[in-house]
Each structure stands twice: as C-alpha cells, then as structure tokens.
C-alpha cells in the first residue's frame, strides 16, 4: 500500500512518524509522494490543547471526501488523540478506519492487512521500539528518542495520561542510532524525551549519556528537549559547559513566573529555584541561549500572579518563548479546579505575554550584531538565490550571502543586522 503520514504536535510525534515509516517499509508498504497517490492516509495526532485536536478533526473531514473518488482509500489515526479517544474516533462516523495508540505501532502492518475497522490503544509501559532505526527524513537534522512517557503529571497536562509511564531506552541503542545518523551526514542531533533530565538506564544518567554521545570524531551538534527545571543537575551544566559538541542552547519550560501558580501546576519548583538555575547556566556558559514555554490564564490565575510572569520574562530575558493559552483537558487535575479564567482574559494575557517577549527576542538578536558566529548552512534562502540560511550553535536562524556550494558546511560569519527571528550575516 502507498501511505502518506501527516504529523501534528511535538517532536516526539515527528520521531514516531519516522518510526512508523520504518515499520511500514519493512512490511513492504511504501511512502506516497503526495496525498493524491495515497491509499492510506495516517494522521499522527496531538492532544495537548483543544485547538490541536480540532485542527486534525477538520483535516480528517476534509480528506474524507477523497473516499468518494477512491473507494479503497483508508484513513488511520495514530498518536496522542488515538490514545485518548480510542474506538470512539471510528464510531463518530467521520471516515476513520483504523485507530492505533502510541505503544502499538508494531501492529500497524497486521491491521492494514486485515483492513477492517479496528482500534488498538492498549498502553504498554515497556514499549520503547528497540531494534528499529527511524527513517530520518531531514537531510541535516535527526531527532532521536531517548525515553518515552512521562511521570510528572503537571496538573494541566494530558501527556502522561496518553503517553503512559516514563521509560528510558538502552543507551547502546541510542548510541547506535546517533552514530548512524552522523555517518549518514546529519550534523544536528536532538535527543528527545518529555523530561530528558530523568533519563536512567542501567546506571547511565543523562549527563553520562551526553558525554558518551559527544565523543565521535566528526563535526556535529548535540541538543536535547525537554529539560524539567526540577531535575536539572549541576552535573548536566558541567557536561554542557565543557563539551564543545553540545549546543549552547537549553529549552527550559518555566510555565509561570508565580510560585503559587507553579505549585498548583504541580511543577515542584518555585520561581526562585528557576531563576537560580538560569543564573547558574549563564555563569557556566555566558553565551547560552535559554528558551521556554509559558501558559497564560491557568485556572485561578489572578492579574497580579499573571504580572509576576511578565516580571519574570523581563528579569530573565529569554531568547525565545513559546506562549500558550491555557486549554482545559478533560481528565487532568486542573480541569477540575475552580475559578477557570474566562476565554477573553486568557486571550488578552496571552497577547501581552507575546508582545513583551517579542521585544526581548528582537533585542537579544540585535545584541549579536557585530559578533562572529558559526552557522551550519542548510538550504538556499527562501527569499533570494544569492543567500543561504542555516542555524547557529545556540539555535538561531541565520541568513548569509552564498550559494548552494555552502550547503552542508559550517561557516564563520559576521552578524550585521537582526530581526526578531533571523540573524542577517556576511
Ligand atoms: N514535556 C515537555 C513538553 C510538554 S507539552 C515539558 O514538560 O516541557 C509542551 C508545552 O505545552 C508545555 O511545556 C506547556 O507549556 C504546554 N501545555 C501543556 N498542556 C497545556 C494545556 N493544557 N494548555 C496550554 N498549554 C499546555
Ligand atoms: Fe506534561 Fe509536565 Fe510531563 Fe511535560 S513534564 S509532558 S508538561 S506532565
Ligand atoms: Fe506531543 Fe502533543 Fe502528544 S505535544 S506527546 S503530540 S499530546
């Protein structure tokens, strides 16, 4: 069968889609070049916010129309929404034929062979898909899953409910996958987990794993997402600081700058702990870029608690922040909290947060003007054939003059101007 995968949500889903590609190709199926060629459309879905689910439901009802032209066409839903909603996705009568949960991808080939409407969503707390190397699609970057699931149960978050308990992959499997990716020409390796800091496999901790992975005799960059502030150790900071292969960038979700809200989010740290971590990181690596996630309008958030988040944004000055409007997820603790903040206020606070951070991001990018940076060139710039674009070690996008010959190499460049998303270099 020719299949086409459409992926939503976080990098974990991007990585899982690559895993599904490997599983299906091994079973003799092949990827369709586009939707028109597909006999099976697979939606790999996200449940983190209501909006993410609504988008996919909209996409499914749109693509369902293809069934009137191509009666053999099947639609599968996999990923977090499949896990959360299970068989009800088929029963809704929106054209879904197969539903496969996040721990059951090895069953996909059998389900396709039977071609009967079915759903398999049992959680399997041991499943780590060992012995399978995902087919990394991007020519330059590879996302390598080092652990699955989450045990933290932040009160707003659906992820632990759909992804199940935390489990780490064998470090030897991870090493093999990273070596394969690097020898096939990838330069940017991102290790993935909901909380990479709690990686643990037969006595190998996350800092130890990073150390092992940064010893290959090639030029490459090693990054990781996501770090939970409650588990970020001094040892990790030390390994990052001394190791030139580890990117000087950390994504450290703060969620809120108010300690009472953080407690009700069940984040297990307060603002002063978070601020102390940022100071420690910057002391050890003055050039480090720090990015974060923030939620506006958590249940019960007062105006002054929200303002504490704005104050924290101004005090810390993140390089970038992903800002989200709180979304109520059925089954999470926060969904039951009193004093849900009205939609209008959530939206208004979100906008204030975005505006403040945008100004800081611009200033952070402008701070780089006049400095020399190293850019890994990935592609021709979208705007001009005489410009190329790539990424800096601290994960910023840079454009510089040059042609295709530079693609795939590390180039030293001088920053001459900046916008709130791009460094313009010579
Ligand atoms: N494991 C990672 C990422 C989890 S999901 C972590 O702990 O950081 C990515 C981001 O989505 C979270 O950091 C959070 O900011 C946001 N998010 C999760 N649930 C949400 C909800 N119910 N409403 C709004 N944003 C949410
Ligand atoms: Fe969700 Fe918290 Fe786990 Fe991240 S650490 S996935 S926010 S429960
Ligand atoms: Fe990722 Fe969304 Fe699932 S953020 S883990 S795809 S709920």
Q: Which helices and strands appear, and what pairs or packs with what?
A:
Elements: E1 2-7, H1 11-26, E2 30-31, E3 40-45, H2 50-64, E4 74-79, H3 80-85, H4 88-91, E5 98-100, H5 108-114, E6 118-120, E7 141-145, E8 147-148, H6 159-163, E9 167-168, H7 171-183, E10 188-192, E11 200-201, E12 204-205, H8 206-213, E13 221-225, H9 234-242, E14 249-251, H10 259-264, H11 271-284, E15 289-296, H12 303-316, E16 320-325, H13 343-366, E17 372-380, E18 387-392, E19 397-401, E20 410-418, E21 422-425
Parallel strand pairs: 1-2, 1-3, 3-4, 4-5, 5-6, 7-10, 10-13, 14-15, 15-16, 19-21
Antiparallel strand pairs: 8-9, 11-12, 17-18, 17-20, 18-19, 20-21
Q: How would you explain this protein's 3D organization?
A:
The protein is an alpha/beta fold. It has three domains: 2-120, Rossmann fold (3-Layer(aba) Sandwich); 141-362, pyruvate-formate lyase- activating enzyme, CATH 3.80.30.20; 372-425. The protein contains 13 helices and 21 strands. The protein has helices at 11-26, 50-64, 80-85, 88-91, 108-114, 159-163, 171-183, 206-213, 234-242, 259-264, 271-284, 303-316, 343-366; strands spanning 2-7, 30-31, 40-45, 74-79, 98-100, 118-120, 141-145, 147-148, 167-168, 188-192, 200-201, 204-205, 221-225, 249-251, 289-296, 320-325, 372-380, 387-392, 397-401, 410-418, 422-425. The chain has a six-stranded parallel sheet, sandwiched between helices. A five-stranded mixed β-barrel has the order 17-18-19-21-20. A hairpin with a 6-residue loop joins strand 17 and strand 18. Helix 8 runs parallel beside helix 9 (234-242). It is globular and about 60 Å long. The protein starts with a strand and ends with a strand. The mean pLDDT is 96. The site of FE3-S4 cluster has 13 residues, from helix 1 and helix 6.
